[in-house]
């Protein structure tokens, strides 16, 4: 018959292994979240409530003007 301490050592070692794996997984998850946050900030999506820049507003106005002209051409209206 085996010594009862063998089961205690086996249980303790298993618990320590599971704890190490859990800590490593959580650190990896936090690192991945930090990476995604950095990507959002780098692409300018970090400040969702910020007003658009002047260049972006000019570009949108230019696109609206082009759409208006294309719609007029499609309707057969001379500008």
Quick structural overview:
With 79 residues, this protein is mostly helical.
Describe what you observe in this structure.
It is built from two helices and no strands. It is rod-shaped and about 100 Å long. The model has no long low-confidence stretch (mean pLDDT 87). It has helices spanning 4-42, 54-75. It has 79 residues and is an all-alpha fold. 77% of the residues lie in helices and 0% in strands.
Write the layout of secondary structure elements.
Layout: H1 4-42, H2 54-75
Features:
single chain, 79 residues, mainly alpha, 2 helices, 77% helix, 0% strand, rod-shaped
Head-to-tail CA distance between termini: 99 Å
Question: What is the molecular shape?
Answer: rod-shaped
**Helix coverage percent of residues?**
over 70%
Strand content: under 5%
Give me the number of helical elements: 2
Q: Could you list the spans in which at least 5 consecutive residues all have pLDDT below 50?
A: none
Structure classification: mainly alpha
The average pLDDT value, as a whole number, equals: 87
Rounded to an integer, what's the Rg over CA atoms? Answer: 30 Å
């Amino acid at each position: 018959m085996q010594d009862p301490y063998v089961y205690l050592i086996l249980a303790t070692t298993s618990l320590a292994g599971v704890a190490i794996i859990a800590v490593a997984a959580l650190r990896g998850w936090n690192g991945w979240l930090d990476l995604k946050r950095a990507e959002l900030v780098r692409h300018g999506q970090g400040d969702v409530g910020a007003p658009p820049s002047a260049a972006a507003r000019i570009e949108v106005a230019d696109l609206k003007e082009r759409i208006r002209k294309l719609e007029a051409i499609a309707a057969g209206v001379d500008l």
